[in-house]
Amino acid sequence: MAARYTIGIDIGGTNIEGGVCDEQGVLRRQRAIKTEVEHGFEHTFQRMVRLVDDLLQDAGLTKTDVLAIGVGAPGPLSHERGVIYTAPNLPGWRDIPLQAKLSEATGLPVTLENDANAAAFGEFTAGAARDVRDMVMLTLGTGIGGGIVLNGLLWRGRFDSAAEIGHMVIVPGGRACPCGQRGCLERYGSANAVIERLIEAVQAGESCALASRLAAGEKLDARDVLRAAADGDRRAARIWDETCYYLALAAVNMQHVLNPELVVLAGGLAKAGERLLTPVRAHFEEQRWKIAPDTPEIVLATCGTDAGMIGAAALARAAQAGR
Ligand SMILES: [Zn+2]
After folding, report:
1. Separation of 199 CA from ligand 1 center, angstroms?
2. What are the E-state strand segments in 65-161?
3. Residue range 20-70, pLDDT digits in tens
4. pTM for the full model?
5. N or C: which end of the chain has fewer CB within 10 A?
6. How far is the CA of 178 from the centre of ligand 1 (A)?
7. Which architecture, in CATH terms, is 5-123+306-320?
């Protein structure tokens, strides 16, 4: 029987998600294991190899049924070389030739991809962007990951670092970013940026319903800010609204550079649903170009945490087809 299936693996700092996808890119079986990053790369790698075997067993398949494996991983990494250079949430992983190692251990072709790119391709394959040709996705979490699909193909750029939309400068001379620049989008539009900016406002002496909880040393996050805003706290509401404004500006900029059909919002902050989408759309409507009707629709992702493995599997299939 011809190899019809692909396996997608999404490596995160806490969990590794694995899935078997069919020819249409539909997820047929899935499993998750703990990354157990504290035991070092070799330990995690052996668990990943076992995950592939377990997935095949679950699906009643053998390796001859599988065309290729796709892996989405945090970076920076090189898709072309198949090497993870380093990853802040995978301590000790440095210059890991994951593509070659996993291919040797499994006997299958392997494609390595940046996790944000893989997630965007997952939404393009089976989620919010499945009926479009050109899309941009923003994954709003600790930072902001980006992915761009143009003409049905993932856009990686010449140096493998296209779609670093989180590091688009949105405020000249603005907040410092660990990347070395100032004013990056992810310092204003990520889940972390929401709570950080609220803490800064409170430290600057601005009044806020969350001030006493912060003073008591409670660890708050973006959900607390959103809840305080919903309860009528004006400071929290202003910071949430500013976050939506900056994300809308990013969408305006992407409209002019790429002219996509869809801008998809994903990640932890997107769990706010309509409370994120409605103000982002309103700010976009206010800021956008009015002289031509070529504006993208802004929508929420639909694949959730499955997007990474679905996308990685689809990219493995694309690589085998020479795309
Ligand atoms: Zn940056």
Report:
1. 20
2. 66-73, 77-78, 83-86, 94-96, 110-114, 135-140, 144-150, 153-154
3. 999 999 999 999 999 999 999 999 999 999 999 999 999 999 999 999 999
4. 0.95
5. N
6. 6
7. 2-Layer Sandwich (3.30)
